[in-house]
Amino acid sequence: MPGAEEPTGRARGLMELGLLVERSGVLAAVDGDRGAVLGVLLEAVERLCGAGREALVAEWRLRARDSLDDGLVLARLSERERA
Q: Could you name the domain of life of the organism this protein comes from (predicted)?
């Protein structure tokens, strides 16, 4: 919409997360079922709480870089990590 303000803060972060969930293929894999998306995210959190967290995160980052053709999303994520 012309003249619409850019979302900031939490709203922008949620929009970016939604884009990442879509691009990852999770939405398509679960036919858009939000409950199933939550289940996928909860399973990921459980895995991150265990041993080998750093290796798992590094592997996921590499997979994201390989699968995303738009470096803008990764650039925004990197900016947040530096902040």
A: Bacteria
| Main-chain dihedrals φ then ψ at residue 6, nearest 5 degrees | -70, 135
* Model confidence, pTM: 0.58
pLDDT digits (tens, 9 = 90+) for 51-61: 888 998 898 88
For residue 52, the enclosing domain spans 9-82
In a domain, 1, yes or no: no
Q: Which residues contact 56 (CB under 8 A, 6 or more apart)?
A: 47, 48
